[in-house]
């Protein structure tokens, strides 16, 4: 039946025979852009029959199948006919539409992007008339423009060809046809094509652009003369970044943005600090002269520094922040995004409109650093989206000394990585400031309209080497011969404006001299700078406290029971998975006093108490909702319809916010994001949980450069908590150790806390302490695996209600202290192995002390417990980790200081090893037995 209907349709159709190829091409154009064909053809294509029940419009790949299928149903004579009934003008009309699409797809490859003119772009035949069977003979013929958004329905081919070259092959090369969303493509086409990528620029904007270039050039020349040879990672060659940023911030303010957070690497950072954020030049010059205050901490180099100020815009003042960051280039990007998410959450803004992230990249780094992909990947996910980021690449075409594309990357452009999230990419010649201004405003408007990332590739050069002491001619001789004679952007644009009659030559000279005079005077050179009043977070409650600061930790048994009852309440129509249902049934028994509390219940109770006190909690990790080891189940999944329910988010009406997200499969970007969040939101308990503690080493840059040293270097407080599953269970090298030793090696200046809690009551009060104590320091937790369900690792409600985290835990068995001959100190899971074996041995002359906080080492508390064992000379530190790992090497000086005089301290544990753990269970078991026996056997 279907075949007979389609045959009748085909027999009456003008799509038969030799027309098929022509129609296929037109249909391809229709699928790319339905407005690119006439109304008549569009009506025909929209009414095409379905192929095997599937509408052919859904896939390009079905086009030929559709026409072949129709051809097979028609008379053979018509299918095989070589004569086309299509007119030549109709065929050329299709070719013209294909030409328009070719420029949209590939015009950027012929754009004038490189200020130095050194780029050798390959010939793109798609952009040539002959490729489309067109020629200059057709220039006077008028063709329908389809969806070409120039404001006309038709145009002579000659005018159209010139228009396409101006729009897509001028100083701007636009890539957007990889975007699958038709509305986004239409929007971009209208904005770009309606003005042929070169709108009229108001005189005021031209003068502001010139002022920005004068400032950028003037700052670099001033520093070069005043501090010759000093590293400053000059912006020279990419000067347009300064007016670009000022225009971007101003446009953002006009659109209602209240805060802007910027992250960037070294190149141009000093210039940005002074000429955009308004840092006082005299302060900068003191830094170059080596003047500093020792009371400010360890400090950092000038081109890592951050800064904050307010910036006046037509829409009112906004708060502007430049994030601190180390030399690990792109790692600052997720930090910025995390900070923005915190600010958005604080303002109650879910669409990103009130806070704008701007990240500034190097061309080699954006293509080379994996954290860029991780950050792009998280950009549209629930837990990490911020309504899009404006990403700017300072593309100086050299990565340190590498300029050959085949060495720097495997893609044509350094920005191709952005296509993974279908971000539009605007390549722009930095020597054309007006083109830079156009794409800057366009990029922000796109971000605000569609809440997605957008990329500006500022194609420029660097006038000096990687730093000012470098010699670039050694590795880039041709490029630097060209740079040597190339005029600076300020001169190029000033000459243009003089020629246009916008400004006089003497006025340009005055702008230059006035800027230098302002630098000599040491005053702020940014007209838009304002004193800070717009920042919305108050850190004062968390400043000036020591570890022993008082805080309210009280909680009663009745309060805990009430929290537990609410934790175990969920909608009546929720069907839980059988194991989860049993777990919640057990939790009810725990609250009723019928069972002791396990780790998962105690942890959830801690969160319940924190949010009911009005504080917020944010937790992320690859399995954080459930917990890697099936213990948390803070997020319940209805087995009937898959819906989610979070009891912790439904405790009461005026509670704090509870957010828990299973993160993307990333460590570096996610931990960096959470660090950024925690540095911008002190009132939230921010937690990242590793799937296995070992995997935190994927975020080692964040841990080393931000978490452990951010306060010492930059004065940045942070209360981020890391939960790192740790414990030797015979699961091999990558599933045993959270590399405790690495965290302990970095302990100094009271930079963070390193804890190894061993009971549910301890984790309950440790988490509450982190949230409630008015002190914001990172908390590193060696969290358990087997202890989550260990029969001895349980607590009573009364133990939770003590409200105190014990940094050291004394012997719990009925051991007579004056009969003790040996004291074993330990942390974590090994305690239970020691305890069980000692009970099995019926030993009464060995005491076991647990050190629950390894840093800051609890000297006073340890001393109180130790006082009962002053007579003991034989002290042992026992650990599961190899001797060169774990706490032994990094903490033994603390242990020795606390011991009685004349006491000896020995080690019981695995031998030193290059690997964190063995991979054979039999070897693991023997090692574990040996180290326990060694610790308990008195020699």
UniProtKB/TrEMBL annotation:
Report which superkingdom the organism of origin falls in: Bacteria
Instruction: Report if keyword Secreted is assigned.
Output: no
Specify whether Oxidoreductase is a keyword of the entry: yes
Cross-referenced Gene3D superfamilies: 3.40.50.12470, 3.40.50.970, Multifunctional 2-oxoglutarate metabolism enzyme, C-terminal domain, TPP helical domain
Query: What are the entry keywords?
Result: Oxidoreductase, Thiamine pyrophosphate
Can you name a GO cellular component term? Answer: cytosol
Question: Which residues does UniProt call coiled coil?
Answer: none
Task: Report a single Gene Ontology molecular function.
Answer: oxoglutarate dehydrogenase (succinyl-transferring) activity
Provide the GO biological process annotations. Answer: tricarboxylic acid cycle
Q: What is its EC number?
A: 1.2.4.2
Which purpose does this protein serve, as stated in its record? E1 component of the 2-oxoglutarate dehydrogenase (OGDH) complex which catalyzes the decarboxylation of 2-oxoglutarate, the first step in the conversion of 2-oxoglutarate to succinyl-CoA and CO(2).
Name of the protein in its database record: 2-oxoglutarate dehydrogenase E1 component
Per the UniProt record, the source organism is Paraglaciecola psychrophila 170
């Amino acid at each position: 039946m279907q075949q007979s209907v389609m045959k009748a349709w085909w027999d009456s159709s003008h799509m038969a025979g030799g027309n098929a190829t022509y129609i296929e091409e037109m249909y391809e154009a229709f699928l790319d852009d339905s407005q690119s064909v006439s109304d008549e053809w569009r009506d025909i294509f929209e009414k095409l029959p379905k192929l095997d029940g599937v509408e052919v419009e859904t896939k390009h790949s079905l086009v030929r199948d559709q026409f072949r299928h129709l051809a097979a149903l028609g008379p053979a004579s018509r299918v095989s006919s070589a004569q086309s009934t299509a007119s030549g003008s109709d065929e050329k009309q299709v070719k013209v539409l294909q030409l328009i699409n070719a420029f949209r797809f590939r015009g950027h490859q012929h754009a004038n992007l490189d200020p130095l003119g050194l780029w050798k772009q390959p010939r793109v035949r798609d952009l040539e008339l002959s490729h489309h069977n067109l020629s200059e003979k057709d220039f006077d013929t008028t063709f329908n423009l389809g969806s070409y958004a120039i404001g006309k329905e038709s145009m002579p081919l000659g005018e159209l060809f010139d228009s396409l070259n101006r729009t897509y092959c001028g100083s701007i090369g636009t890539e957007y046809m990889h975007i699958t969303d038709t509305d986004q493509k239409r929007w971009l086409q209208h904005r770009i094509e309606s003005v042929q990528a070169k709108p009229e620029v108001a005189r005021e904007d031209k003068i502001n652009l010139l002022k920005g270039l004068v400032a950028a050039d003037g700052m670099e020349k001033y520093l070069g003369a005043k501090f010759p040879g000093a590293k400053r990672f000059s912006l020279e060659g990419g000067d347009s970044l300064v007016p670009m940023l000022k225009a971007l911030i101003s446009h953002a303010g006009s659109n209602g943005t209240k805060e802007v957070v910027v992250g960037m690497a070294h190149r141009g950072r000093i210039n940005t600090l002074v000429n955009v954020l308004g840092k006082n030049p005299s302060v900068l010059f003191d830094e170059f002269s080596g003047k500093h205050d020792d009371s400010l901490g360890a400090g950092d180099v000038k081109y890592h520094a951050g800064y904050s100020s307010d910036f006046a815009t037509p829409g009112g003042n906004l708060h502007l922040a430049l994030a601190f960051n180390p030399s690990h280039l792109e790692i600052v990007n997720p930090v910025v995004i995390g900070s923005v998410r915190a600010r958005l959450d604080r303002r109650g803004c879910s669409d990103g409109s009130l806070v704008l992230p701007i990240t500034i990249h190097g061309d080699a780094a954006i293509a080379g650093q994996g954290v860029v992909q991780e950050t792009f990947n998280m950009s549209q996910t629930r837990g990490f989206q911020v309504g899009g980021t404006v990403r700017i690449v300072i593309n100086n075409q050299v990565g340190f000394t590498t300029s050959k594309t085949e060495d720097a990357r495997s893609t044509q452009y350094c920005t191709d990585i952005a296509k993974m999230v279908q971000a539009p990419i605007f390549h722009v010649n930095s020597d054309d400031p007006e083109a830079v201004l156009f794409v800057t405003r366009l990029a922000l408007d796109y971000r605000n309209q569609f809440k997605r990332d957008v990329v500006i590739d500022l194609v420029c050069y660097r006038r000096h080497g990687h730093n000012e002491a470098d010699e670039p001619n050694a590795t880039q001789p041709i490029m630097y011969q060209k740079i040597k004679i190339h005029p600076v952007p300020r001169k190029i644009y000033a000459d243009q404006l003089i020629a246009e009659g916008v400004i006089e030559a003497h006025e340009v000279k005055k702008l230059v001299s006035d800027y230098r005079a302002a630098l000599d005077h040491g005053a702020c050179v940014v007209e838009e700078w304002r004193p800070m009043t717009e920042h919305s977070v108050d850190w004062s409650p968390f400043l000036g406290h020591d570890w022993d600061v008082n805080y309210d930790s009280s909680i009663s048994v009745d309060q805990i029971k009430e929290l537990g009852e609410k934790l175990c309440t969920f909608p009546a129509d929720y069907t839980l998975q059988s194991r989860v249902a049993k777990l919640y049934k057990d939790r009810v028994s725990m609250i009723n006093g019928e069972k002791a509390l396990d780790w998962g219940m105690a942890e959830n109770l801690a969160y319940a108490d924190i949010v009911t006190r009005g504080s917020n909690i944010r937790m992320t990790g690859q399995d954080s909702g459930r917990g890697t080891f099936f213990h948390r189940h803070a997020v319940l999944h209805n087995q009937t319809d898959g819906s989610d329910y979070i009891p912790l988010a439904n405790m009461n009406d005026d509670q704090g916010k509870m957010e828990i997200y299973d993160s993307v499969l990333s460590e570096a970007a996610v931990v960096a994001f959470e660090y950024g969040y925690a540095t911008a939101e002190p009132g939230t308990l921010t937690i990242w949980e590793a799937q296995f503690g070992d995997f935190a080493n994927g975020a080692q840059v964040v841990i080393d450069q931000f978490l452990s040293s951010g306060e010492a270097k930059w004065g940045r407080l942070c209360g981020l908590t890391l939960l790192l599953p740790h414990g030797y269970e015979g699961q091999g090298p990558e599933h045993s150790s959270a590399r405790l030793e690495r965290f302990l090696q970095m302990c100094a200046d009271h930079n963070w806390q390193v804890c190894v809690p061993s009971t549910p009551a301890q984790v309950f009060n440790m988490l509450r302490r982190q949230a409630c104590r008015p002190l914001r320091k990172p908390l590193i937790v060696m969290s358990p695996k087997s202890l989550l369900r260990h029969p001895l690792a349980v607590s009573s409600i009364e133990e939770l209600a003590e409200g105190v985290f014990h940094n050291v835990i004394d012997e719990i068995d009925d051991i007579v202290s004056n009969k003790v001959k040996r004291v074993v100190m330990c942390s974590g899971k090994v305690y239970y192995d020691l305890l069980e074996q000692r009970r099995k041995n019926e030993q009464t002359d060995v005491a076991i002390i647990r050190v629950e906080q390894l840093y800051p080492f609890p000297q006073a508390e340890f001393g109180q417990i130790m006082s009962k064992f002053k007579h003991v000379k034989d002290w042992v530190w026992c650990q599961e980790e190899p001797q060169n790992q774990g706490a032994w090497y990094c903490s033994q000086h603390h242990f020795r200081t606390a011991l009685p005089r004349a006491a000896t301290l020995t080690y019981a544990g695995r031998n030193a090893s290059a690997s964190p753990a063995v991979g054979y269970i039999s070897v693991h078991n023997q090692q574990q037995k040996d180290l326990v026996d060694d610790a308990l056997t008195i020699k």
